[in-house]
Specification:
This protein has 82 residues and is mainly alpha-helical. It has a domain at 44-82. The protein contains three helices and no strands. Helix 2 (45-62) runs antiparallel to helix 3 (67-80). The longest helix is centred in the N-terminal third of the chain and has 27 residues, at 10-36. The chain is rod-shaped and about 80 Å long.
Amino acid sequence: MMGFYGSPGMGWMWIFWILLIVGLVLLIILLVRLVGGGVSGRGTRATGGSRAREILAERYARGDLTAEEYREGLRTLDEAGE
């Protein structure tokens, strides 16, 4: 008389529940990254480079930079591979 908790199939049930929980955690992480615009597979350089260009363009539009300073900033970003 093993009862419900002593049945031979319980070992597989633990594996099932562990895999289910791990799968749900991975799914939540994936959804958070997709919705939140998380880091792409290339790392933060792709996001950082486009953001740097946005900041440069905003500063130029406000008049904080001259046309030459703006072009120099773009050249610097291109040389850095951003």
